[in-house]
Amino acid sequence: MPSTSARAFPDFPIDGKLIDLVEQAMRAGHNQYAPMPGLPVLREVIVSKVKRLYGFSYDPETEVTVTAGGTQAIFTAIGAVVNPGDEVIIVDPAYDCYSPTVELFGGRPVHVRLGSDMQFDADAVRQAITPRTRMLMINTPHNPAGTILRDADMKHIADMLRGTDILLLSDEVYEHLVFDGEPHASVINYPDLRDRAFVIFSFGKVFHTTGWKMGYALAPKALMAEFRKVHQFNVFSANTPMQHALATYMKDPANYENVPSFYQTKRDRFASGMKGSRFTLLPCEGSYFQVADYSAISNEADRAFAERVAREFGVAAIPLSPFYKAPPADQHLLRFCFAKQDATLDAAIEKLCKI
Q1: Which long-range contacts (CB under 8 A, 24 or more apart) does 121-129 make?
Q2: Which class would CATH give 31-252?
Q3: Is the pTM of this model over 0.90?
Q4: What is the pLDDT of residues 138-168, one digit of tens each?
Q5: DSSP secondary-structure letter at 322?
Q6: All structural domains of the chain with their residue ranges
Q7: Architecture of the domain delimited by 257-352
Q8: Which tens digit of pLDDT belongs to each residue from 228-275?
């Protein structure tokens, strides 16, 4: 029986106009290295988009860098400012590149947890701050939890960092996947945070092109200067024809404005179908991930249960425990990805309802 995939990437076609723009760029001869920080025209389009959404203008010359995906941007930001012995606060469950990258540069990850409701726990983060804290890493919408940070959370973060030299890395790669009419509470909206922050975005998440590995980072001039010192000797520059294509494609806001409704429809389709199952779905406020509690079905460890579901029912899911330094002992959660064609979602729902 073929497996119904729940791996974390879309399985549907991208906009043909975007493919045409890449081909046009290649045929026009844009096949050599782009400038190290990214094509000027793309950086200018990024600044226009950010200004339109968040009301703030970064300097395209000194505060915007195009990267080979969001993960490379995260790696580069950490490498730019974290030194041996520095502490970096990571909120678990966390995207799996955070902690290893901190350790690679000699830093010490300090892990705190989201609350039992998968919401940000400001008190836990505040208690983790020490004189050695160099950076706090946040993620909204959150992978893998599917929750979001709101205005009150951002104000709590600003309060706890005020008067310190602690830097902020805000992973906002799912900025356009926020549901139910909620605004995306970007760090860019909060001057006290923006002035100390690397803010990371992903073209792949917005335009369903995860395999292109295209993203960008925003930061104040002094921080971006340090970022580029690492970026230059890490990848030097990102894919040139795709930068040309994205610069043209992003000039039309409709190409990203409809993303929230597109994915909310898929979230709702999956959630509605899963009402017939024995899984309990946690609130999904953003991203393309749905966390489900299976404690009414089994007491198995999440990894074992996920393997059994894949083997016996043909549906792939990700256990939540690998996203923790020390997972809660009594937690029975899996992460499903609903960035799939409707037929794929329906086939998965049918199988999951039989468990």
Answers
A1: 122/153, 122/156, 122/157, 122/160, 125/89, 125/91, 125/157, 125/160, 126/160, 128/89, 129/89, 129/160, 129/164, 129/166
A2: alpha beta
A3: yes
A4: 999 999 999 999 999 999 999 999 999 999 9
A5: G
A6: 31-252, 257-352
A7: Alpha-Beta Complex (3.90)
A8: 999 999 999 999 999 999 999 999 999 999 999 999 999 999 999 999
